Amino acid sequence: MSRFDINKFMMFVDGTNEALNEFCNDREGFVARWVGAAEESVRPVPDGGSLSTDEQAALIGLEVGTLYEMGAHPYILLHFARAVEVDFNGIPFPEFDRAYKEAVTPHGYPNFAT
Amino acid sequence: MSELVAVLGVPHNPLLRRAMQAGIDDDLRATHENFQDFRGRLEDARPDVLIMVGSDHFRKFFYDNSPAFMIGKAPRFQGTHPNEIRTFGLDPMEVPGDVEMATSLLGTTFLNSDSIDFGFSNEWLIDHGWTVPLWFLRPQYDIPIVPIHSNTNMPPLPGPRRFAALGQYLREAIATDGSDKRVAIIATGHLATDIGGPRQFLGGDSPDPEFDADAVAWMASGDIEVAIEGCQFDRLASAGNVTLQFLNLLVGLAAADRVPDFAEGTASRFAPGPFFYWDMRGQP
Q: Is B197 within 8 Å of A109 when comparing Cβ atoms?
């Protein structure tokens, strides 16, 4: 598990409207291209990175609790999830906030150092 | 010699800005009044340059490139990043930079500072850690800035004594700077704040009221050693996962090196925000 690679992915998606739209319109395809870019090159890979199968599934499924438990940085995770659910999907923020807290609360405060 | 005329410690919560643009409701009034007061005090101090100490939120400095302390030495700084415009509703902005002051702080051969190993940046898109305090305190964006980034988000972090050393260095460097400018330092950070954790957005309540009271008391003591002692990593982290940004406020206390003229953790619709002010005019 690489906290760096998870954080890098989430920051990239949240970073621009283009990346956010591309991810939200085709989550599986976006993740496949991201992982593929890293496999076809050597670092640095500005728009790619290595993700395990579990990490890919958590990102595609927006499994906030799983990503949080993995040690994703909370600030980055919140803004990634918010970008997808509130900015793109149009879910009202209070509703998103309730679901987010329900997802992370059972996990307390995991270590998020990379 | 340049002169340190004011030191400010303020919040930079971008949600405050967006909420206040919609109107000043009762749960925003105290924060609004504090910012108005600080804006007037800053105006009265007539600074020629603002040295602004804050923490980039993973945009300029990420896990692939994370300096402990970084000085911006560009002639102009633009803000902010596309995701902050989208999510926070922030406006693009631009403010002049003071290359002369930045260079004076840095040096041109070996670093001038014996205490802080600064990095530097000639091109830096600043985020809400700088643009929001400026919007509240100097919305004309007409006073040149020297932004200083500290890593308070990606452990391992510089310890509290390093933040104190930064403040002490800024005070000494301003006093020996040859440009004869009036300088204000603006440090920005959080009291107890959880972003992305179980205690985020508690509707105005603090995730750790005891920390807030302690932290304001450390600052109000005017004693940097008291604040350093209080800022243990686990204590900061347990108060919320971005409470570590409180460390930036130690820079202000160390630079002022005395009891503040104003010290308050101000309640609002969001987690309480830090407000500290030192009038440094006429201070030795």
A: yes
Tell which of B55, B56, B57, B83 to mutate to test the A interface (max A CBs under 10 Å).
Answer: B83
pLDDT digits (tens, 9 = 90+) for A21-75: 999 999 999 999 999 998 887 777 778 899 999 999 999 999 999 999 999 999 9
- Report if pTM > 0.90: yes
Burial environment of residue B82 by CB neighbours within 10 A (0 to 12, 13 to 18, 19 or more): middle
Q: Does A16 touch chain B (CB under 8 A)?
A: yes
pLDDT in tens, B40-85: 999 999 999 999 999 999 999 999 999 999 999 999 999 999 999 9
∠ Cα B118 B124 B128 (to 5°)? 100
Hey, what CATH topology would domain A3-107 get? Protocatechuate 4,5-dioxygenase; Chain A (1.10.700)
Per the CB < 8 A criterion, the answer to whether B34 and B275 are in contact is yes
On the CB side of A18, CA atoms within 13 Å amount to: 1
What CATH number is attached to the domain comprising B265?
Answer: 3.40.830.10
What ipTM did this prediction achieve?
Answer: 0.95
Q: Considering the domain boundaries, does residue B212 fall inside one?
A: yes
> Which residues, 6+ apart, have CB-to-CB distance to B253 below 8 Å?
B9, B164, B167, B219, B222, B224, B227, B260, B276
Residues of A in contact with B242 (CB under 8 A): 75
Q: Do A104 and B198 touch (CB under 8 A)?
A: yes
Q: What domain range is B214 assigned to?
A: 3-279
Residue ranges of domains in chain A: 3-107
Q: How many domains, in total, are found in chain B?
A: 1
Q: Which residue numbers of B have CB closer than 8 Å to A's CBs? A: 57-59, 62-64, 81-83, 86-87, 153-156, 194-198, 200-201, 237-238, 241-242
CB contact under 8 A, A79 and B63: no
- B284 in a structural domain: no
